[in-house]
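User: Please run a holo structure prediction.
Assistant: Happy to. Please share the sequence and the ligand.
User: Here you go; the ligand is nicotinamide-adenine-dinucleotide.
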Amino acid sequence: MTKKIVVIPGDGIGKEITDSAVAVMKKTAAKHSLNLEYDYKDAGGTAYDKYGVPLPDETLNACKAADGILFGAVGGDKWDSVEPALRPEKAILGLRKGLGLYANLRPVKVADSLTEYSPLKQELVKGVDLVIVRELVGGIYFGEKCESEQHNGAERAWDLENYSVPEVQRIAKLAFETARLRRCKVTSVDKANVLATSRLWRRTVAEVSEAYPDVELNNLYVDNTAMQLAVKPTQFDVILTGNIFGDILSDEAAVIGGSIGMMPSASIGELTSLYEPIHGSAPDIAGKGIANPVGTILSAAMLFRYSLKEEQAALDIEKAVDDALAAGWRTADLWHEGFKKADTEAMTQAILDNI
Ligand code: NAD
């Protein structure tokens, strides 16, 4: 059966890095006898220039019918003066909303050959292999808010945090399923000593965990988690958390890896899911052919794992990346004396050669 993949290169380095990832997907699919069809669509500034909107209906509709979406990046100085509602970055919010992407998965894996790039001591990051499962469409970011009101003679503003049991159940199930593909350990992160939403979160996660007796569950307060990520990041397998805590912790965890160009992500929906590197469109290096394609290639591996349920294909891509790095290949963002310098094409080829 043919599976449909929508590819959205976007702006800046988007085309270069998605070209690399699609080349890796094609070779991997051929190896595993998978039939994939690629449909290219516009979003971001590129779409604004052509159609006057950052997310054309045609793109959203194609995504709704896709088995998986590979996304490059959007944005750039060229569109800085465009009115806020039509800015390239609005395409991402439109896709999240239009596709019901309720969870964000951010793996942080530090290959042995890359420990030197981490701001933490090498012995602390060796072996780090965790994934943050963040709730993406609820919590305080989407609650009722008040920009300004008078209260007891002073101006104040407020944002309301709320979570329902079904919202927590849905994300918790995803975290337990994700753990089953890994080392079977979930750490649920909240602030249950202070927040009512966190107490409902903790109770609901415990109930969901009863269906996963093979997965170990423990609870940690968010402040302690922030500290533990810096002092012993190897203790984590799957970190399950809400929208605002996940936003902050995923950026903290990302720097442990040391390079923004290496990090993949997935935004999971009930109908389809979207895969993209965590970095932006890097306008400063766009068109030079020197962008690091690894974050996008590892995002493609996640597409095989979570949307196509092809675990071995995902593992093949991840190993091909590890082997290319272990062989000494580095793009300009990571290169220093003693390594083999690769542009985007050479890095991609080094990875393709390992598949
Ligand atoms: P950025 O991630 O694009 O770049 C930050 C720095 O990292 C730059 O020096 C860049 O050259 C470097 N970099 C990023 N990815 C790289 C790669 N693959 N290889 C080598 N170097 C890489 O962040 P920014 O400069 O703050 O934002 C640029 C544009 O991207 C803005 O318009 C921003 O709104 C947008 N943006 C988009 C997304 C997205 O599409 N999901 C995410 C973040 C930022």
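The chain has two domains: 1-107+263-355, 119-257.
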